[in-house]
Each structure stands twice: as structure tokens, then as C-alpha cells.
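Dear colleagues,

As part of the handover before I leave the project, I'm documenting each prediction I ran so the next person doesn't have to rerun anything. This entry is a single chain, and its sequence is reproduced below.
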Amino acid sequence: MHGRTCRVNSMQLKEPPLDAEARASLPQTLVCPRVGKPRRDGETGLLIRPARTIGAVVAGVLWLDSARAQTTNLCDGCTFSGSVTNPLGSVTELVGTNAATLDRGSTFDNLGLVLLTGSGSLNMGQGARFENLASGTYDLESDAGFSSGYPPPEYFDNFGTFRKSDGAGSSVVSPIWFNNLGGVVDVETGTLTLAYGSSSNGVFTVASGAVLDLTGGATPTWAGVIEGSGAGEVALSSGTLTASPSLTLNCATGLIQWNGGAFSGTVTNANVVTISGAVSVRLLKASTFSNAGLVRHLGNGGLNLGQYAHFENLSSGAYDLESDAGFFTSEAPPQHFDNFGTFRKSGGTSNSVVSKVLFDNLGGVVDVETGTLTLANSGSSSNGLFTVGSGATLDLTGGAAPTWAGVIEGSGAGEVALSSGTLTASPSLTLNCAAGLFQWSGGILSGTLTNANTMTISGAAGVRLEKGSSFNNTGLVRHVGNGGLSLAQYAHFENLSSGTYDLESDAGLSGSVAPPQYFDNFGTLGKSGGTNVSTIAISFNNQNGSIEVDSGTLSLAGNPYVQGTGALTIKLGGAEAGESGQLVTSANASLGGPLNVELANHFVPALGSRFLILSCARLTGTFTSASLPPGISVNYLSNGVLLVAIGGSGAKPSAATDVSFSFPLANGPSYTIHTSTNGVGYTVVPELSGPNFTFSFPTLSGTNAIQMNDDLGTTNWIDYTNFVAQGLPYQFLISPTNPQEFFRIRQP
């Protein structure tokens, strides 16, 4: 028997041909629904007139049948059994408080619109399947959802649009399996919770204030690509979202909120994922999360990586810690965080720690803008760019033992700290960090390292260069802390020709175990701070390098000082102990390069002041040149070098001053000048050349007389020589013949 044709607006809908028996089994409300009060459908805009309630539908098509307007098939606790189809253009509405039933083993194919407006759920029997096809829309206009009183599985497959458009509460798809197969999931209000299922691809739209819960504490599987937009929230707050074989998240800023639960499998973030909440989130065992977009870590809960899990922050990716949270593991190692992109801490004033998880920086940027970021792990990194803001700290080890290679570039007014643990260069590591950035305040450096910019050794604790390691300094090492640099056996510190090692404290260098340890100076070794003694207590080899001592004493211990072509620079900063520089060795010293003497701190040496700038066991050689302040003379001793203030730079004798000179030959070349007017005495050491002594002393303008006798107790002074002076330093040479002779100057 042929079906009837009904007109809906300008569209004709025709019943399928049914025999009399089949027609008799269908409720007549499906064929000729009554006309009631019309309403406008929000999905299609068509005028809808409610029909009479469906009782039961057995293996049929839910046709519309009205000559006046589109009609709606109403289901108030009805049952669908067999293979049921809601065609394109048809509307089926689930109303009332009673649950509608899709019978066991039955299938409902929706090509049109299904509205759930009542508080009753859709109850699905065992093996039942609801197919929301590409043209179909399933719209939850209440907080009702799905239910099942049967053993699983039951399925809701979404190829079309699955929407929650009303209800401020929660609609739950559970315990049935929700399989999104390229469809749209649209949440306009309240919360939609998807528990179980195996989905692939999809588009999420979640309005402001609305939530799409992806797991509901269960373990759904997703694959393909999820596109997401809206000002609401796609939440992974519990359960496990498994990517199989892989899942790509491409959701707008703020949409995906990972605030609990776990990811499993191979996941890629192509846009923005936010880790929020106070509880930790997990990346499960052997899983991989590849970030090509932005991960914002806002919550205080950490990221917990399972055994063999990898977090790959790709070259285009940024992982931003906007809190004091960090990474950790609760399982046996290994776990990896590989940074090819940017790893940043932009929020929180405390410490974010990467603990036990292997942090491998593979050419990426590590940016610390606030607080402390601690890489407390034993990862293996190569190359990288560090930027650390003022007041912020990047702790490279946290007491662990990471390995680095390649080149680290560093900038910023903060601190890259090696304060504990061991930083190993393998096969080699070059540090190129701005002044003040790299602070070696504790811990150990191991392997072959090069400082190409500035490194600061700070703190009260000592630091160590590990056994067999080499440190090549081509930049500046500032040793400002009181803790020393300890070198283990066979360790080498190479201060290369462009390098400067500056002791700005009284710290020194020592061996931590049995010798040998080496410090080779091709560049400049300086002591610019501290008024006590800094000691180089390891094997010191001056390879034509320069030495500068501004204050205090630089001791080479038992190492000889071979000047070579390098300069010796001494600063005179005061007459008190430690205010002027001194180089000391208990071994021999051999001179051969230039001497530079500078006055510091506006110091003007008093006439006759003596400064023993070099002390040694035995002195050989002389300086090739001497750059001296006016009125300073150089005096070579058998065991050192003495500077004497002879005038020009300090006070000169006043008019009619008697000055006497003496030297006891038996005790070596000492010489004393006595002034008779004010009783001030000082010692000048002559320059000795064979049997001759040369003395330098200040003069006043006019005729000066040098007188001599062999007994200071007499007044029998004999004129030795006269000369006309112009107030400049004067030198005279004598060849003594008596055991002692005394000289004095008579000045205008």
C-alpha cells in the first residue's frame, strides 16, 4: 500500500509504502499529527506544531505529516525499537519526566533534529546505537542526558552536531560510549560531560560560562584533530584522555583547561592549553606530549610525568610557568622534558622545580622573569639561550648532576646559579654570559669548559674544578666571594691570552686532593680587592702573562715567578698594611717585562716611604721598562723589588734642612735619610751596580751640597760635591771605601 503525501510549507514529505499490517502497527500520530499551538524552532526557524505523544515506534521512519506546517514527533517516555530513522527535516522531541528508551540492540539514525526538552534521559539498552548523522542535530535543552540499566556497550555516534543549549546544570553522557566521529560538540550553557567512548576529530564550541568535560572521570579515547573555539572551558579535570594513535589539540586561548586527570598516548598542542587548578596533572607512562603552541601553567599543581613519558616543547612552542608549580615524577625513571622552544617562568615569586624529570635543553630558550626556576635533575642538554630578569634566578642543578654541551648564551640582570651539585660539560661547554649573570657560588664544574664572557665566583662556600677537568678562560672571571677555588687532581685552569682572573677578595686557589693541579697564566692574573693574602697554592705557571696587584698580597706560595714579557702592575693605595699591592713567592723570581706603578685612592706617598712590591727568595733580571708616578724610584734587592718615594709625588724637604744618608756595608745595601729639622727618618735603598751605589733623593731649587763623614757622633762633615738643583729628583753615585760612610745634604 502506498503512503500518503503531506505538505510542510513548500516541501512535500511522503510516507514510505507500507502494507496494511505494517501501517496498522505504527501509531497514527506519526502519520497525521494534530495541530496545536505553534512555536518557532531555534535550529531551523521553521514553524513547529506539536503532535500527539509517540507511544512506541517499531522499525520505522519518523515522518512529518501536516498540510499546514512542520510538525514535531513528541516522545514522552516512548520506546524506539529496531531500526528507527528521523529523516532530514524531521523533528523529534523527547519531553516530560519519563526517560525515552532505545531498545536493546536497536539503532536510531538521526538526519534531522532531536530535541531533549524534558527532564527524562534517553535510556539505551544493551548494544543500542544512536547515530547522529552528518546532517543531524541532537540538542539537549535541559540538564537531562543518557542512561543505561544494561551491561555495556551502548553507543552514541556523533557525525553531526551534539549540542547543549539549555540548562544551567550538568548533562552527562554516561555510561554509554560517546563516539565523536568528526562531529561538532556545542555547549552553550551549563556543563556537558562526556565519559566513555572512542572518538576521532571534531569541532568544539563552548560559550562563556559553559563547560565541556571530556572524561567525567572515565577513560575515553580520542584521535585526529580537535578544533576548539569560544570563551568557555573544555575541561580535563579527572580520568584519562587517551590519544590513539594520536591526537592534536587546536583550541583557542583559555579553552582547554587541564586541571586534573591525565593524558595518555601521543598528544600534540597546536594552539593553547592551560594547566590550571591546585591538583597535579599527569602525562602517563610512555606517553608523549608535543607542544607546538603555548602551554600556560597557571595552577599550583605540578606536572607529573610517568615512566618513559616525554614532554616535547618544540621549536615553535612555549611552556610558560605562570605560578610556582613545576615538574616531578612519582614513578621510576626515566622521564624527559625536552626543550627546543621557550621554557619560561613568568609568574610566582618562589621556586618552580623540575625535579627528577630529565630536563634536556636542545637549543631552546630558558627565560626566568620572576622568582626561581630550578633544574634539579640530571638531564643532558646542548646549547641554549638564557635570559634572567632582575631579581630572578635560574638554578642550573638544584644539587643534581646535569650534563651540558655546546654554547650557552646568557643575558639579563638576574642570576644563573651554580650553587650545588655538578655541572658536567660533555664533550665541551662554552659559557657566554653577560657580566654578573653566571654566579658560581658552590658545587662543581666538570669536563672541558670555556668562559667566553664573564663568570663570577661568589659566596662563602668553596667551588671546585673536578678531577681531570679543564677550564679555559678567554673572558673575565671575577672571584668576589671569600670561598676559594679548589682544583682536583690533574685539573687545569688555563687563563688564556685574552682572559683575566681577578681576585676581588682574599680568596685563593688550592688543591682539593693530591697534586698536581695547574694554573697557567697567559693573560692577566689580578688581585683588585681584599687587604690580606690571596694564595695560589697549586702549580702556577706564568706563560708571559701579566700580574696586577692593587691591594693586599698575592702569594704564589712555592711557585717561582717568571715574568716573561708580561707586565707587573702594582697600585699604591696607602701606607698601612694591605692598602698597597705586593707580589710574594717563597721561590725565586725572574724579571723581564715592564713594570707599571699607579697611585690609587688619591694617595700621595710621604717622602722616603718604602713599598716592597715583590718579595722572593732570590731575584734575577730587571724590568725592561718602568712606568712610575713622579718621585718614585725602583730599587732592586737580592730578594725583591722596593719602591721608594724620593720626591715629586709627595712632600719635599723644607729650606735649610739637614739630611744624612748611611749604609752599613756588612749588612747589605740599606740607606737611611735623617732630617734634622723634624726628626722624621725614612729609608732609601740604593741601586747596586758592582762596587757602586746610586742614590736618588728630592731636592730644592738652588745650590745643594752633599757632605760626608765616617762618624755620626762628630760634627766633622766634609763637602763631597755641590750641584745646582731645580726642585727635581737628583741621583748621585758613590764607590764606598770604608766599612761605613754617612752622607747628608745641605739644601737652601
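The chain has one helix and 80 strands. The CA atoms of residues 405 and 426 lie 5 Å apart.

All the best with the project,
I.
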